[in-house]
Design brief:
The complex is a heterodimer of chains A (about 425) and B (about 325). Chain A has about 425 residues and is an alpha/beta fold. Chain A contains nine helices and nine strands. Chain B is globular and about 65 Å long. Chains A and B meet through helix 4, helix 5, strand 8 and strand 9 of A and helix 4, strand 8 and strand 9 of B.
Chain lengths: ~425, ~325
C-alpha cells in the first residue's frame, strides 16, 4: 500500500500535465461524430452550426439533399484549427435512414460501419509495427428525434436498443423551435421515461469531484435529451448579430439558452466532454467489441464470426497459443467447478444418509425402551395383583379362623351353660 | 307564350322562379347535412389540434380523454367520432375519422390498406342502401368527403410513404395535402418546400383536390388554379388563446414570439379554412358523390355480372 508523503521542497513534477498538454497539441486530436436521423431533421445544419464550418455547402450539398433509396453511411473529414490545437474531425452521416416505407434493419449498415471501424483499430493494435494508429472509431452518435411531442417512435427505440452498447448514444430533439417550452418539457419527460422503460443506456455524464463541475453536470442531466435548433444564418437582433432563424413572429436564436439547448450541446460535446467520450469509447465500447471478437475465435484459428477479417490471417500464428491457452484454462476451470460441485453433492448425500440412519437408530432405541418400560409396568402390576390376592387369601383365612374361634367360643359357652344346668341339677 | 327553345326566352313578368334558391335553403337548413373528414398522417403532426381549430370546438378524439402519453398503436386503427355542430340555424353532422398508427411502425408496408378498405366500405354501405327495393328517404352518408393528408415538414421533399399513399388513394377520395407544424420553417424554406412538393406530385401523377379534370367552367378553373398554386397549405393549429395587440387570438407561444394561427402572414390556416369550409364544402361532397362514388359503383356493377336489388338485412356479400 503506497502511503502519501509530504514533499520538503519543490520537485517539479507538477509540470507533468503541461508536458502532456504540449505533446498532445503537437500530435493533434481526432474525433469522429456520427449523426443519425430521418431526412429533414436538420442534421447537416446542426453540424455546420456546431463546428462553425460549412461542411455541407451550396456547391457540395449534403447527402440529405439527394434522394437515397437505401441507407448509406458517408464520412467526411475536416481539419479545424483553433489556438494552435488541431482537430481532425470526421463526420459520419447516414442518409436514407428511416426514409423508406419499410425500415426494417435500416440500422444494420450503421452497425456494420461501427464494427468495421473497431475492427480496423483492433487489427492496427495487433500489428507488430504500431507506430501510426489512426483512431477512426466512432466516438459519439447523435441520434435525432423528430419533434412530434408525443414520445419515441418504434424505430427510435429499436435503433437505440441495438446501438447503446456499441457506441455512445446521445439523443437530441431536432428542430426544437417547433415546440413551445411546455410541450418541450413534457416531451423530454416522456422520452426519458421511455428510455428507462426500455433500458436503453444513453451516454452518462461522469460525476467529478469538483462541486462546481458537478452542478453543471447535473444541470445537463436534467435537460436530457437536449432540444436543439441549428442555423448558419446571421440575423441582427437588437443591434446584435446572432445566429438564428427568422420567422414572421420573431427570431429563434440558436445560442440563446432560453430558446434551445444548442449551447449546452456544444459545450458538452466540444468544450468539456470530448475527451471523456473518447475514453468511454476506448475503455468500454471498444473493449466489449474486442472481447466479443476474440472470444468468437476458436483455438483452431477458425473464425466463427461472419467476417473472416485479417485477425485470423495475420495474427493466427501468434495468437494461437495464448488464445488456445485461454480456452484450455477456461475449460479446465469449468471442469474443476463441475467436479467440485459433484463432490459437494456426494458429501451432502452421505451426510444426509448418516443423519437418517442415526434418526432411525434412535427411533428404534426409543421403541425398545418404551416396550421395556411397558413390560416392567406390567410385571409390577402382576406382582401387585399377586400380593393383593395373597393378602385377600390371608384375610379370608383369618376371617375363617375368626369365625371358627367365634363358633368355638359359642360352642364352649353353650356347653358351659349346659354343664351349669346339668351341674345344678346334681 | 314562351317558346320552348334552346335559347333563353324573355319573361313578360316576374314569375318567382328565383325563389327556388330560398326554398332549397330552407330545406337544407331543416334537414341539416353530413360532412365526413378523414385525417391521415404520422403521430405528432398536430392532426387532432388542427381539426379542433378548424371547427372551433373539441371534435377530435383528443377531447375524448386521450392522454398525451398514449402508446402508439401497433396496427393502424380507424376511429370515427361524430359531433353535431350548429351555426346560423344550419345543422351539420361532422364526423372526424382518425387513423392513429399510420406510418409509425418500422415497417410501414401496406399501411394504407386499412384506410383504403374503410373508404370502400363506406361506398359499399351507400351502394347497398341505394340498391334496396325499399329505400330510405335520406340515405345516411358516411362516405369520406375529404381526406386531409399531413406532410411532415422536413424542408426537403415528400417521403416515399407520402407518395405511395397519395398515389393509391387519390382516385378513390379527395385528398388535400397540408404541411403540418409549419412553424418549423421560415418563409423562404416554406416556399421552396412547397415548390418541391408540387413538382413531386406532378411527377408522380397524383391529382389532389381540386382536380383539374373536374373544373366545370372558366370561373371554376381560375378560382381553382389560384388554390392549386397555393397548395399544399402550410398550417399551424392551436386551441390556446393569447393576447396580441389587444386582441385575443389563437396561437402558439414560444420564447421568441407568438405564432398567430389566423394571421395570413404567419401561416395559411385561414386560407385552408376558407377553402375547406366556406367555399368548397359542398363541392367536396358533390365530387365524392358524382365522381368517386360513381367510379366505385361502376366497378362493382361490372364485376360479378351485375347486382340485383336485395331487401334489407340480407347481408350476404355473395349475393351481389
Amino acid at each position: 500500500m503506497a502511503t502519501q508523503r509530504n514533499l520538503e521542497g519543490y520537485v517539479g513534477f507538477a509540470n507533468l500535465p503541461n508536458q502532456v498538454y504540449r505533446k498532445s497539441v503537437k500530435r493533434g486530436f481526432e474525433f469522429t461524430l456520427m449523426v443519425v436521423g430521418e431526412s429533414g431533421l436538420g442534421k447537416s445544419t446542426l453540424i455546420n452550426s456546431l463546428f462553425l464550418t460549412d461542411l455541407y455547402s451550396k456547391d457540395y450539398p449534403g447527402p440529405s439533399q439527394r434522394i437515397k433509396k437505401t441507407v448509406q453511411v458517408e464520412q467526411s473529414k475536416v481539419l479545424v484549427k483553433e489556438g494552435g490545437v488541431q482537430l481532425t474531425l470526421t463526420i459520419v452521416d447516414t442518409p436514407g435512414f428511416g426514409d423508406a416505407v419499410d425500415n426494417s434493419n435500416c440500422w444494420q449498415p450503421v452497425i456494420n460501419y461501427i464494427d468495421s471501424k473497431c475492427e480496423d483499430f483492433l487489427n492496427a493494435e495487433s500489428r507488430v509495427n504500431r507506430r501510426s494508429m489512426p483512431d477512426n472509431r466512432v466516438h459519439c452518435c447523435l441520434y435525432f428525434i423528430a419533434p412530434s411531442g408525443h414520445g419515441l417512435k418504434p424505430l427510435d427505440i429499436e435503433f437505440m436498443k441495438r446501438l447503446h452498447d456499441k457506441v455512445n448514444v446521445i439523443p437530441l430533439i431536432a428542430k426544437a423551435d417547433t415546440l413551445t417550452p411546455e410541450e418541450c418539457q413534457l416531451f423530454k419527460k416522456q422520452i426519458m421515461k421511455e428510455i428507462q422503460e426500455h433500458k436503453i443506456k444513453i451516454y452518462e455524464f461522469p460525476d467529478t469531484e469538483d462541486a462546481d463541475d458537478n452542478k453543471l453536470v447535473r444541470k445537463i442531466k436534467e435537460k436530457m435529451p437536449l432540444a436543439v435548433v441549428g442555423s448558419n444564418v446571421v440575423i441582427e437582433v437588437n443591434g446584435k448579430k446572432v445566429r438564428g432563424r427568422q420567422y414572421p413572429w420573431g427570431v429563434a436564436e440558436v445560442e440563446n439558452g432560453e430558446h434551445c439547448d444548442f449551447t449546452v450541446l456544444r459545450n458538452m460535446l466540444i468544450r468539456t466532454h470530448m475527451q471523456d467520450l473518447k475514453d468511454v469509447t476506448n475503455n468500454v465500447h471498444y473493449e466489449n467489441y474486442r472481447s466479443r471478437k476474440l472470444a468468437a475465435v476458436t483455438c483452431n484459428g477458425v473464425d466463427t464470426t461472419k467476417s473472416k477479417g485479417q485477425l485470423t490471417r495475420s495474427a493466427s500464428v501468434t495468437k494461437r497459443s495464448p488464445l488456445a491457452q485461454m480456452e484450455e484454462e477456461r475449460r479446465e476451470h469449468v471442469m474443476k467447478m463441475k467436479k467440485m460441485e459433484a463432490e459437494m453433492e456426494q458429501v451432502f448425500e452421505m451426510k444426509v444418509k448418516e443423519k437418517k440412519q442415526k434418526l432411525r437408530d434412535s427411533e428404534a432405541e426409543l421403541e425398545r425402551r418404551h416396550e421395556q418400560m411397558k413390560r416392567n409396568l406390567e410385571a409390577q402390576y402382576k406382582e401387585l395383583e399377586e400380593k393383593k390376592r395373597v393378602h385377600e387369601d390371608e384375610k379370608a383365612n383369618w376371617e375363617a379362623q375368626q369365625r371358627i374361634l367365634e363358633q368355638q367360643k359359642l360352642d364352649a359357652s353353650k356347653t358351659m351353660e349346659k354343664n351349669k344346668k346339668k351341674g345344678k341339677i346334681f | 307564350l314562351a317558346k320552348m327553345s334552346g335559347g333563353g326566352s324573355t319573361l313578360l313578368g316576374y314569375i318567382g322562379i328565383d325563389t327556388i334558391i330560398e326554398q332549397m335553403r330552407k330545406k337544407t337548413m331543416k334537414a341539416g347535412f353530413d360532412f365526413n373528414i378523414m385525417v391521415v398522417g404520422n403521430s405528432g403532426l398536430g392532426k387532432s389540434t388542427l381539426v379542433n381549430t378548424l371547427f372551433k370546438s373539441q371534435v377530435s378524439r383528443r377531447s375524448a380523454g386521450w392522454a398525451r402519453d398514449e402508446k402508439i398503436p401497433k396496427t393502424i386503427e380507424i376511429k370515427a367520432v361524430s359531433h353535431v355542430l350548429e351555426e346560423g340555424g344550419v345543422k351539420m353532422k361532422l364526423t372526424v375519422v382518425d387513423t392513429p398508427g399510420f406510418g409509425d411502425q418500422i415497417n410501414n408496408d401496406n399501411c394504407w390498406e386499412p384506410i383504403s378498405k374503410y373508404i370502400n366500405e363506406q361506398y359499399e354501405k351507400f351502394l347497398k342502401e341505394e340498391v334496396n327495393i325499399t329505400r330510405k328517404k335520406r340515405i345516411p352518408d358516411t362516405r369520406v368527403h375529404c381526406c386531409i393528408y399531413f406532410i411532415t415538414p422536413t424542408g426537403h421533399s415528400l417521403r416515399s410513404l407520402d407518395i405511395e399513399f397519395m398515389k393509391r388513394l387519390s382516385h378513390s377520395v379527395n385528398i388535400i395535402p397540408v404541411i403540418a407544424k409549419s412553424d418549423t420553417m421560415t418563409i423562404e424554406e416554406r416556399l421552396e418546400f412547397k415548390q418541391r412538393v408540387r413538382k413531386e406530385l406532378e411527377m408522380g401523377g397524383i391529382e389532389v383536390y381540386p382536380q383539374k379534370e373536374f373544373d366545370e367552367d372558366m370561373e371554376d378553373k381560375s378560382d381553382n388554379d389560384k388554390i392549386r398554386e397555393a397548395m399544399p397549405f402550410a398550417v399551424v393549429g392551436s386551441d390556446k388563446e393569447y393576447q396580441v395587440n389587444g386582441k385575443r387570438v389563437l396561437g402558439r407561444k414560444t420564447a421568441w414570439g407568438i405564432v398567430e394561427v389566423e394571421n395570413p402572414n404567419h401561416c395559411e390556416f385561414a386560407q385552408l379554412r376558407d377553402f375547406l369550409i366556406r367555399s368548397h364544402l359542398q363541392d367536396l361532397k358533390e365530387v365524392t358523390h358524382n365522381i368517386h362514388y360513381e367510379t366505385y359503383r361502376a366497378k362493382r356493377l361490372n364485376e360479378n355480372g351485375g347486382l340485383h336489388p336485395i331487401t334489407c338485412n340480407d347481408t350476404q356479400e355473395s349475393n351481389l
